[in-house]
Amino acid sequence: MKSYTKYLNIKTKEEKEILNITYDVEKVLHESGIKEGLLLVNSMHITSSVFINDEENGLKKDFLEWLEKLAPEKSTYDGYYHHRTGEINADAHLKRTIMGREVVVAITKGSLDFGPWEQIFYGEFDGRRDKKVLIKIIGE
Amino acid sequence: MKSYTKYLNIKTKEEKEILNITYDVEKVLHESGIKEGLLLVNSMHITSSVFINDEENGLKKDFLEWLEKLAPEKSTYDGYYHHRTGEINADAHLKRTIMGREVVVAITKGSLDFGPWEQIFYGEFDGRRDKKVLIKIIGE
Amino acid sequence: MKSYTKYLNIKTKEEKEILNITYDVEKVLHESGIKEGLLLVNSMHITSSVFINDEENGLKKDFLEWLEKLAPEKSTYDGYYHHRTGEINADAHLKRTIMGREVVVAITKGSLDFGPWEQIFYGEFDGRRDKKVLIKIIGE
After folding, report:
1. Would you kindly state where each structural domain of chain A is located, as residue ranges?
2. Average per-residue pLDDT in chain B?
3. What is the ipTM of this complex?
């Protein structure tokens, strides 16, 4: 069994932003030389996500508006219990929960074994600072 | 390390439908001969899900009604930004996000290592067309 | 390839409760002797979750209040279709769906390969009874 580990550095321009990281993940997969196995991609932070969906700009806006409805930002110290700590980003913890922390992808014949529209995204909900995404591949 | 890959073909009768695929996954596991390892099951599409819950018809209806509340269908071109592409299925992308794309299951002594009620489901939110589910098993 | 399997027994005092299980998972990892690989942690029940977020008491309260809004408890037999079975815990199935069933964590140099704030939690939504969490590690 071989394993391969790599970290991506990400710093978004916007506080909330969705970035397509498929190409970066593919590059790491090719470096690894692994042909058959499983690939994990996860956010190393608790206010951002890694998820799989469609590369379409309208849909990215829909995701952000929808998350704002389900888990609204409240920029006051009594907006959420969590804000009593001095941080006012509880909404980002909730938004990340809906979008998910990680994806696990099958590696078949040296490629991400994807359906026609699958793409990997990093979803940032508390951005403009240094964050990391972990990629771990195991297989042969 | 052994690995085994298989694709299930699925075409639902309804636009939104929840199918129990536990038996299909077990069949693939037995074909693989793998006794200890991890099994990934994922939808290869971005408007459908694979998830684990309970085999109970009322609960399936509850899931569909609840998803409709959290991520409502809007059958107009201005209902969601995504609809400006001509597709009017943004709700299906959101519903799938709540239910999840994939599950990872432990394989122990040649079986799905499940609690008493765990069953694997395919959740379709934009159906009546050909879709695929991927099963990838790695282990020994 | 090595694999290691362990089950944690959990019985919460409250019906809905969030427990930090990071230390228990680390103990199992060290027992396993596995240095590079993947670790799966999942609830073996369909009304509880395993997820990764921040160890902060206010945030745990925020999660429980937020879930109650998105998937409210209805303690009557006609509150959800599922309640016609005699069980009145449909909300717990929905809450667990939002929080997720499982996490997959990279193992690097014998440790959970975590970002600065990542911690593993068990989220119980139908508690005060015996439940199990599965930990499966594969690697070398």
Report:
1. 2-139
2. 97
3. 0.97
